[in-house]
């Protein structure tokens, strides 16, 4: 997969140079758009954003609405992957309106709806996310877009997993896995397997989880999927934590955090920082824990991730309680409780009582 991306990038760079040489600015812009999307799929977000922004400007200059809105959609996806949800929502909502009202492109509109649903999912707004993703799934099926339908099933499975409905999660993820395998989409199939590993962790099946995540990590590395590989490094910390192996857990999280930072995934890095803070908290290293959790909380608020922010407040409240600062603890836990209730996370809210 990585080799094919590199081969395609070389051909497109060549073509871009030729188009510029002949003064074909539209052709050059189309090459930039394709190159930007290749970088995006390889998790090289900074390079992707530069190319797509450049292509977007060129398309607007030529009056090519389709090319311009496709670039806007791709830029929205980059913001989503980097945890900049406010910017992502603006771009994707703008793209969705363009697809429907100006161009009438059903596939593009559905893809925007899917991305908006995924943003709600990442922010812990599960009810809104499920509605959007179910809607998008139906539309993808109607137009025969198997990849989009499989991705929606995967995201819906994720929502069930996060809400502790493991049977429903396994059913949807198994369905998504079959569809990804049917169309030969290796990254999608590997992501489903990674989520099975997550479910095993939540069910206390640590040996099966470790084997699954180790296997999937190898698959991601083989196909050059840096984000998936980093996510596999991030999860086993939970196994070590559950078994009291805090040093190994911290090593894995630090490694994963470095990988996320390398590929520009600020949200993944913030989640690692949150988990490192929780490890210090469990070891009664309250000062280090509070610093990390406060930092992570600020990052989550910046990205609009209400779930992550509420979880950090809850952990910080627990630290104050353990240190006998009951007034500060009560304020933080009350704040966290309200945030959990706002996003419909009843389990999180109950843990704050």
Automatic annotation (TrEMBL):
Q: Does the keyword Repeat apply?
A: yes
Entries under SUPFAM superfamilies matching the protein: TPR-like
InterPro entries (UniProt xref): TPR-like_helical_dom_sf (IPR011990), TPR_rpt (IPR019734)
Q: Which key words are in the record?
A: Repeat, TPR repeat
The family database entries (Pfam families) matched by this protein are listed as: TPR_10 (PF13374), TPR_12 (PF13424)
Q: Does the keyword Membrane apply?
A: no
Q: What is this protein called?
A: TPR-like protein
């Amino acid at each position: 997969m990585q080799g094919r991306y590199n081969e395609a990038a070389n051909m497109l760079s060549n073509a871009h140079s030729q188009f510029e040489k002949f003064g074909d600015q539209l052709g050059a812009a189309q090459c930039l758009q394709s190159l930007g999307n290749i970088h995006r799929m390889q998790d090289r977000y900074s390079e992707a954003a530069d190319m797509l922004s450049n292509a977007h400007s060129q398309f607007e200059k030529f009056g090519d609405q389709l090319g311009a809105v496709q670039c806007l959609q791709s830029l929205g996806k980059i913001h989503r992957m980097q945890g900049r949800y406010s910017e992502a929502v603006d771009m994707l909502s703008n793209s969705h309106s363009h697809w429907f009202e100006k161009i009438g492109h059903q596939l593009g509109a559905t893809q925007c709806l899917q991305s908006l649903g995924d943003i709600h999912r990442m922010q812990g707004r599960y009810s809104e996310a499920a509605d959007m993703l179910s809607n998008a799934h139906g539309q993808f099926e109607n137009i025969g877009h198997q990849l989009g339908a499989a991705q929606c099933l995967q995201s819906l499975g994720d929502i069930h997993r996060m809400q502790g409905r493991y049977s429903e999660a396994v059913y949807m993820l198994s369905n998504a896995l079959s569809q990804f395998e049917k169309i030969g989409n290796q990254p999608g199939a590997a992501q489903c397997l990674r989520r099975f590993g997550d479910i095993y962790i939540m069910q206390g099946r640590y040996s099966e989880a470790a084997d699954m995540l180790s296997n999937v990590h190898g698959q991601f590395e083989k196909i050059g999927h840096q984000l998936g590989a980093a996510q596999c490094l991030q999860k086993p910390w939970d196994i070590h934590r559950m078994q009291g192996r805090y040093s190994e857990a911290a090593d894995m999280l630090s490694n994963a955090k470095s990988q996320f930072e390398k590929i520009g995934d600020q949200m993944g890095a913030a989640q690692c920082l949150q988990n490192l803070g929780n490890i210090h908290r469990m070891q009664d290293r309250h000062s280090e824990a509070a610093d990390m959790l406060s930092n992570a909380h600020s990052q989550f608020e910046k990205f609009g991730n209400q779930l992550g922010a509420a979880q950090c407040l809850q952990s910080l409240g627990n630290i104050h309680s353990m240190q006998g600062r009951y007034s500060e603890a009560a304020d933080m836990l009350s704040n966290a409780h309200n945030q959990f209730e706002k996003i419909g996370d009843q389990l999180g809210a109950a843990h704050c009582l």
